[in-house]
Design goal:
By secondary structure, this protein is mainly α. Helices cover 81% and strands 3% of the residues. The chain has a two-stranded antiparallel sheet with strand order 1-2. The longest helix is centred in the middle third of the chain and has 33 residues.
Length: 137
């Protein structure tokens, strides 16, 4: 969520013509996203994932929502790498074309990520912590 907020702030600054501030904020946003990804992968590999503990009637909806979030996160990560690479290589015309799409995908990823967290830990009692595929399916 922090990376998405920083991305919104960076987007604001580029709209104001503040390229240096935009660059610094976007690199910070990417750093937060990468840090979250590393922590998430560490937890997935060494601890496992938590299965949905809500009512069985909600399981299919949760699973569809989770798969949608995973697809968005994957697309957002790939778009992020491409967008950053274009900027770092000074290919700004292509960066400007793909950047807004990357931001929208990342905002949706952040929102769905928060919703997954709420469904797993706040709205319903969490299930057991298991391996990745057992938690998803």
């Amino acid at each position: 969520m922090v990376s998405a907020i920083l991305m919104a702030v960076g987007w604001y600054h580029i709209r104001q013509g503040r390229k240096e501030v935009h660059m610094k904020i976007m690199l910070t946003a990417a750093s937060f996203a990468l840090t979250f990804f590393v922590i998430y992968m560490y937890r997935t590999i060494f601890v496992g994932n938590t299965s949905f503990g809500g009512p069985e009637s909600m399981q299919v909806y949760y699973t569809i929502f989770l798969v949608f979030h995973i697809l968005l996160a994957t697309a957002g990560g790939l778009f992020g790498v491409v967008t950053l690479t274009l900027a770092l290589r000074s290919s700004f015309s292509r960066h400007r074309k793909i950047g807004p799409w990357t931001a929208v995908i990342w905002f949706c990823t952040a929102v769905t990520g928060v919703m997954v967290y709420l469904l797993l830990y706040v709205l319903y009692p969490h299930g057991t912590t298991t391996g990745l595929f057992d938690a998803i399916f």
